[in-house]
């Protein structure tokens, strides 16, 4: 499967939006806290699977 040029552009735009949201969401948190948050959210998602 391949992306069209338009699809690639849309994916690049979406990636930027997600990265910006992630930066805003974790602003002011220590790296260790962000890592722990990711671990906890992963565990929550696994519990729902």
What can you tell me about this protein's structure?
- The structure is a single chain.
- With 49 residues, the protein is mainly α.
- The protein has one domain.
- 82% of the residues lie in helices and 0% in strands.
- The chain has 2 helices and no strands.
- The longest helix has 22 residues.
- The protein is flat.
- The model has no long low-confidence stretch (mean pLDDT 97).
- InterPro entries: WH-like_DNA-bd_sf, WH_DNA-bd_sf.
Question: What are the SSEs and their pairings?
Answer:
Elements: H1 5-26, H2 31-48
Secondary structure: helix percent: over 70%
The number of domains? 1
Shape, per Cα inertia axes: flat
Structural class, by secondary structure, is mainly alpha
How would you summarize what this structure contains?
This protein has 49 residues and is mainly α. It has helices spanning 5-26, 31-48.
């Amino acid at each position: 499967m391949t992306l069209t040029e338009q699809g690639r552009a849309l994916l690049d735009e979406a990636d930027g939006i997600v990265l910006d949201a992630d930066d805003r969401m974790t602003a002011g948190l220590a790296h260790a806290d962000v890592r722990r948050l990711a671990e906890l959210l992963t565990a929550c998602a696994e519990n729902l699977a």
